[in-house]
Amino acid sequence: QLQLVESGGGLVQPGGSLRLSCAASGSTLDYFAIGWFRQAPGKEREGVSCISSGGGRTNYAYSVKGRFTISRDNAKNTVYLQMNSLKPEDTAVYYCVAARILGGCHQLLGHEYDYWGQGTQVTVST
User: Fold this and answer.
1) Is residue 21 within 8 Å of residue 30, measured between CB atoms?
2) What is the DSSP letter of 23?
3) What are phi and psi of 58, to 5 degrees?
């Protein structure tokens, strides 16, 4: 059973940066497309970014495009989300998600991802 553990969240001022990490265990990430979703209280869950199993394809929500970068290191079984120029509206719990598929990351649809981490809180102050 694949397990995902996020880390790197915290409190940051607007304009600041954070790097989230998603450490996987139980299976090699070579077989998985990986995504990041976020959810704030009272708001819909939002797909933030994804990366294909081989790392050759990425997608981003328009709201974060140009500010966030997703990457993966399959040798370390870890996926990262570099978040720059953070805004208060980026405040949310961020979840690392995985879909057992070769390739993938054609869309950011939550139901495609079977494995979810516990989430890490990102708070961007005003």
Assistant:
1) no
2) E
3) -130, 155
87 C-beta neighbours (distance < 10 Å), count:
14
49 pairs with which residues across the strands?
Answer: 36, 60
| Two tokens, residue 21 | 């990490």
Show the tokens assigned to 77.
């079984």
Tokens of 26: 């139980």
Backbone angles phi, psi at 111, to 5 degrees: -70, -15
Provide the terminal-to-terminal Cα distance of the chain, rounded to the nearest Å.
40
Which residues in 31-55 are b (16+ Cβ under 10 Å) and which e?
ebbbbbbbeeeeeeebbbbbbbbeb
Q: Mind listing the pLDDT tens digit for each residue in 53-96?
A: 999 999 999 999 999 999 999 899 999 999 999 999 999 999 99
* pLDDT (mean) for 103-118: 93
What amino acid is encoded at 86 in this protein?
A: L
Taking only the tens place, the pLDDT of each residue in 34-47 is 999 999 999 999 99
Cα 126 to the center of its chain, rounded Å: 23
